[in-house]
DNA sequence: GCAGCGTCTGGAATCGATTACATCGCAGGG
DNA sequence: CCCTGCGATGTAATCGATTCCAGACGCTGC
């Protein structure tokens, strides 16, 4: 006995009206004790579950939030999704996910079909007209776009990049390479700016190669790096994936990390501390980020009792491991240092 | 002009009834040419989008499928989610995700609230009463449970494990270790069985250590392995994560892979081919698996025109890379071989 | 000229809940 | 004793689409 039980079935079994059943379930204190017990018993007996579509239609909300990410296959998002879903679930919300590259028409519909109450945007490259056309509460997470009319949550990417440069400079590297993300990407641009600022501040030489955050981009950058003269002794990759690709290809080319070159990553993905060598990297607290975004969205939806101020805990930190060390001390380098 | 446009607004602007607007949108061929054009123009002018909740209620379906996974933070699922979402999107379905450990009550609701038309189950450890209580089309993917009344899609885990053993045996390893998943898990159990079978078939020595698929489990297993006498020269880990943890800890203990010990993983995650050494592993075609599951579910929902037979392409393969090699030829081993 | 048929369109029921408003009974104050 | 007020409950409107059914219209063929 289940599946197609409606509220009228419960009502007739309990000998009350549907209004009373509805109230007994959603506002128990407004229903008399005896009646409530009778209703609850009928609910149990029939196995009744409210029909979401009917409730959503009547209440004009979907009890659901939508996550839009530029590539669901990217493992970087896993922990963020997990955190968002936990928070959402706690607030009684379901979680819908979609790749943001499903095509303009479908994308527009997603924000319009009334099946999500709010959106977590992990993509800063969607057409702003589409995004601003949605009349839903939104939060930008990690990536962002100035044109979107929505609050942002994320780390200070420029500061994070500067930390990486600082670290390499502190180890006495005088020439560093940045393997960045693609030109159009805000994260890539901001981290590159931070890199440039850091390099300028420390008076060291900085070079940039554009990549796209992937393993292959890192490997490709390693081959380019090997041909540079003089070769930078420190490398800052815009993502851990990229850094691992770089290190892996270095090994194939006969270079050791950190003996021949120091490498700093970005993100602190799960594997970073188990890579060989363990990767020095900028930690993005992904779980905290996801949680903060979900909380902020729940707040915007007016579902939270307590409004908490912006979480100050979302700061990037550098995690120093074994992929960075002082630069190799070959003759030319010693000579250079002596000249200073 | 948008957001709160209803079908009646479009109808009155176009000077037709709501029935006609509805038909013009969902079955254009049943509406006269002139009328259809007028309706479409009104749709454009008003920016009308159908209300999903209303349509779902009337049609008694949600145009949405639910993915249930035991841990959304597990990066293994990323590619699967991505593939499922692609197929679902192509079939006009939204994708909802949930961690399957959200608590029994919430879990029961998920399958009952009418907001999903079908479920992709990636968890074989949910209470069968809950799962079988759902009256929705379901597909079990990767993990499974005999008690669930739902078709399964996944690789042959026992055969896959045997392939790993074969590979090690072919390299002349005579004593191999299996770092398995946790006891209750079907994947762990099946792979362990395959391991045992393989070992027996080749007449070599096999030992098993229970882990839980994680990096740390692999690292822990490495420490245990180092204390074994004699030490197995080949290791088959039940997941790539575990294998990477094992190799990483081996390095910390002063053992080299594959010089001192050969390691085979399972899954072929993205990093496997870039790890140092590149990991020999059993490839699970995750994208194909996700795609097949989504297609099968779409078929069950009766949304597909063509029913395609079970995809035979979903077979595990072994990808041989650099983490496996013949066993080290120390004296004791040479002696043993000589005795054969 | 008319029956018969096919095409297009509109009226109204329907999906299943929530909720504004009305009603009823009873307790307490004037 | 009547009236007010309040708590508990029922009646019916409502959310916004889809779809059954029937009617209008134009043609064809006899």
Automatic annotation (TrEMBL), chains A, B:
InterPro entries: HTH_LacI (IPR000843), LacI/GalR-like_sensor (IPR046335), Lambda_DNA-bd_dom_sf (IPR010982), Peripla_BP_I (IPR028082). The keyword Ligase does not apply. Coiled coil: none annotated. SMART domains: HTH_LACI. The lineage of its organism: Bacteria, Pseudomonadati, Pseudomonadota, Alphaproteobacteria, Rhodobacterales. GO terms for molecular function: DNA-binding transcription factor activity; transcription cis-regulatory region binding. This is LacI family transcriptional regulator. Pfam families: LacI, Peripla_BP_3. It comes from Palleronia aestuarii. The keyword Electron transport does not apply. Residues 5-59 form the HTH lacI-type domain. Keywords: DNA-binding, Transcription, Transcription regulation. Residues 321-340 are annotated as: Disordered.
């Amino acid at each position: 006995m289940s599946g197609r039980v409606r509220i009228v079935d419960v009502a007739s079994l309990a000998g009350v009206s549907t209004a009373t059943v509805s109230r007994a379930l959603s506002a128990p204190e407004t229903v008399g004790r005896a009646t409530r017990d009778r209703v609850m018993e009928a609910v149990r007996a029939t196995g009744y579950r409210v029909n979401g579509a009917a409730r959503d239609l009547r209440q004009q909300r979907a009890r659901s939030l939508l996550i839009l990410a530029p590539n669901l296959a990217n493992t970087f998002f896993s922990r963020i999704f997990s955190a968002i879903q936990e928070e959402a679930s706690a607030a009684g919300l379901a979680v819908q996910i979609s790749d943001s590259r499903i095509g303009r028409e479908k994308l527009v519909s997603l924000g319009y079909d009334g099946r999500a109450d709010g959106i977590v945007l992990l993509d800063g490259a969607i057409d702003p007209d589409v995004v601003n056309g949605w009349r839903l509460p939104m939060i930008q997470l990690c990536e962002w776009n100035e044109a979107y009319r929505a609050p942002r949550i994320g780390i200070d990417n420029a500061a994070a990049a500067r930390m990486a440069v600082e670290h390499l400079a502190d180890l006495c590297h005088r020439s560093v390479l940045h393997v960045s993300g693609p030109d159009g990407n805000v994260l890539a641009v901001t981290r590159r700016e931070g890199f440039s600022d850091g390099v300028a501040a420390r008076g060291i030489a900085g070079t940039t190669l554009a990549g796209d955050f992937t393993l292959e981009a890192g490997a490709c950058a390693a081959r380019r790096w090997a041909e540079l003269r003089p070769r930078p002794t420190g490398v800052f990759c815009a993502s851990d994936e990229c850094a691992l690709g770089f290190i892996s290809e270095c090994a194939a080319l006969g270079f050791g990390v950190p003996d021949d070159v120091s490498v700093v990553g970005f993100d602190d993905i799960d594997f970073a501390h188990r890579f060989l060598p363990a990767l020095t990297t900028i930690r993005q607290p992904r779980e905290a980020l996801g949680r903060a975004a979900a909380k902020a969205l729940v707040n915007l939806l007016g579902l939270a009792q307590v409004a908490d101020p912006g979480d100050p805990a979302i700061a990037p930190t550098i995690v120093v491991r074994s992929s960075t060390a002082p630069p190799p001390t070959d003759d030319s380098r010693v000579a250079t240092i002596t000249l200073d």
